[in-house]
Amino acid sequence: MNVRRRHISAVALSAVAALGFGTLTACSSDSAAAGDTGSFDVVASFYPMAFLAERIGGEHVHVTSLTQPGQEPHDLEISARQTAQLEEADAALYLKGLQPSVDEAIGQSPIATKIDAAELTTLEEHGTEVGHDEEHGDEHGTEAGHDEEHGDEHAHEDEHGHDHEGGDPHIWLDPVRYAEVAEGVGKAFQKADPDHAADYRANTAALVKDLKTLDEKFRTGLANRKTDVFLTTHAAFGYLAERYGLTEEAISGLDPDTEPSGARVKELQKIAKEDGVTTVFYETLVSDRTAKTLAGDTGLRTDVLDPVEGITDHSRGEDYFQVMEANLTALRTALGAR
Question: Best exposed site among 30, 49, 59, 96 by fewest CB in 10 Å?
Answer without folding.
Answer: 59
